[in-house]
Design a protein that fits this description.
Elements: E1 8-14, H1 24-30, E2 35-38, E3 53-55, H2 56-68, E4 72-82, H3 84-95, E5 99-105, E6 115-118, E7 121-123, E8 134-135, E9 141-142, E10 169-174, H4 182-195, E11 202-206, E12 223-226, E13 231-234, H5 239-261
Parallel strand pairs: 1-2, 1-4, 3-6, 4-5, 5-10, 10-11
Antiparallel strand pairs: 6-7, 8-9, 12-13
């Protein structure tokens, strides 16, 4: 939180499958006019060691704590999630009260890996087919097609009911994401919301950007060991395009949060070309 004593919008920040508590993004965003809570959800202190099951009451407690903070401006908070953190944020927005805006970076609209529980309801984890892994000539695994299709048959039970959400959504999509089929998921989210008479989400696509869209000037991590699958994985992204996407995405999420959470204009990064084209399906953006 910025040390200046004033009321500022609150945001819960959730990262991906790496586990532990990482605060770098929350720290940077706190300097832009927000109170940001970096929330760990496994492999940290007394939390579970592995992401096997999720209980949404834990995440609800974090939202309520932030809302009760004397320096946080209500009436709601924002959510920022990347990768697994993205689908956790979608679940929070769908089931919990007090969510005013949600930004999803290369997330999924299905509950991936580990059943999610909340007040007697269970959202089952979608099945994974590891035989769908594509292997590059360098021996790196592309996992973007291993999850079952959430709009087919029994797999629909794993589709997050985001039509319950009361908050607007911003989806930031790397079109070279090799971990999640993020472009497909964003478009399916848009179709589902509109089918239920909800506001169309904002979708921004970044050509040749990979999975880990970080704050500006962080180096591209194109490949590394996947903690979840215990094998070398390709995350995707071309250096120049990915770097430009990171600068623009950082600007876009600040604008979105300031618009929907209130507060001042904040500090916006230098201008770069905005990527506002449709993501794959006409009319889905």
């Amino acid at each position: 939180m910025n040390s200046e004593p004033r009321h500022v919008p609150g945001i819960v920040d959730i990262l991906g499958f790496g586990g532990g508590l990482l605060e770098y993004r929350a720290s940077l965003l706190a300097g832009k006019g927000f109170a940001v809570m970096a929330l760990a959800y496994y492999n940290y202190e007394d939390l579970p060691k592995a992401p096997e099951n999720f209980h949404l009451e834990y995440f609800e407690e974090a939202v309520n704590y932030l809302l009760s903070h004397p320096q946080v401006k209500g009436p709601g908070v924002g959510l920022l999630g990347i990768s697994k953190g993205g689908d956790l944020c979608l679940c929070m927005a769908s089931f919990l009260k007090g969510i005013t805006a949600s930004v999803i970076i290369n997330g999924s609209v299905i509950n991936a890996v580990g059943d999610l529980h909340y007040k007697g309801e269970t959202l089952p984890a979608v099945g994974l087919h590891l035989n769908r892994i594509k292997v590059t000539k360098d021996g790196l695994a592309d996992f973007s097609r291993v999850a079952n299709n959430p709009v087919e048959g029994s797999f629909q039970k794993s589709f997050i009911p985001l039509e319950r959400a009361e908050s607007p959504f911003l989806f930031l999509v790397g079109q070279d994401d090799c971990i999640f089929n993020s472009e497909f998921y964003a478009n399916e989210a848009s179709k589902r919301l509109q089918a239920h008479g909800k506001e169309k989400p904002q979708i921004i696509c970044y050509p040749a950007a990979g999975h880990y869209i970080e704050p500006p000037y962080f180096p591209l991590c194109r490949a590394s060991l996947s903690i979840l699958f215990s094998r070398p994985a390709i995350w995707g992204g071309e250096p120049r395009a990915h770097a430009m996407a990171q600068v623009d995405a950082w600007k876009q999420l600040q604008i979105f949060f300031h618009k929907h959470l209130g507060g001042g204009k904040g500090i916006i990064p230098p201008k770069v070309r905005s990527f506002t084209g449709l993501c794959g399906i006409p009319g889905a953006n």
